[in-house]
Amino acid sequence: MKKKDRISLVVLAAGMGSRYGGLKQMDSFGPNGETIIDYSLYDAQRAGFDHVVFIIREYFSEAFKTAFEPKMKGRMETDYVYQELTNIPHAFQISPERDRPWGTGHAIWVAHDVIDGPFAVINADDYYGPESYVTLYNFLKEKRDQEEYSVVGYKLDNTLSEHGAVNRGVCQVDDAGYLQHITECKQIIRDEKGVISYPGDDGQVQLLNSNDPVSMNMWGFYPSYFTFFENQFDDFLKSNGSELKSEYYIPTLVDHLIISGERQTKVLHCDAEWFGVTYREDKEFVTARLNELLREGVYPVELWK
């Protein structure tokens, strides 16, 4: 298979896991030590993805390769790319006090040498559900010539937590189904009557609909992303590069492309369930939910047998 004919999956796994207290990308959630990534790869391969790119930090690369290379052999081509602070498109004087890379938008760019065709992007510590991979794969395959970007829009109701407030990127969608903007809504809660709301900037309670589409950072792109990023990242560094914690996020670039008219982004509606791990306390719920999916027959107990 020619590389340009591949449809790739980019797994953002370079996070440090500071809030979790360790590398949650490598933590076990399944009955045989499976990570969340294992279930994501299983779903992606079944949907048709044939190439996976792991975006990681170099210091834990050997652990990653040991964990996933044997499982992927004969199933999906693999590449491992390092998101490091100094791996940027053009020279820039980086503060010696800065200790983190440049965010999710930058994480995708570091894969530019190993991707030649359409690709999906996911977080390593999020479970997206089998349907989402089928939806995104089919879109990337069908829209290859048009180079329309895409984002999977989950129903807000399927992403809320019973354990407290959450932050979600709510998608504003036009009548043709294209993304207009992503609004970051913080401290979203669902009360005992099922009403979903969050405190607005003006202190007034803002209501949300359970069917509102939200982005959980599952995207579809093409190699043109890399050029667009390079053009915009220089401006970002000039304005924000001296800040020790500044980051360039995926929606930052997508918003710019929508406003400039350079690319459209289709919102792919999906009824799948989403769940993820941010804090150590999330592990019990995620493990229990995966066990339920095993009992329901969604996954085999021996995932890679």
TrEMBL record:
Signal peptide location in the record? Answer: none
A Pfam short name: NTP_transferase
Name used for this protein in its record: Nucleotidyltransferase
- The Nucleotidyl transferase domain covers 10-169
Q: Which domain of life is it from?
A: Bacteria
Q: Which organism is it from?
A: Candidatus Opimibacter skivensis
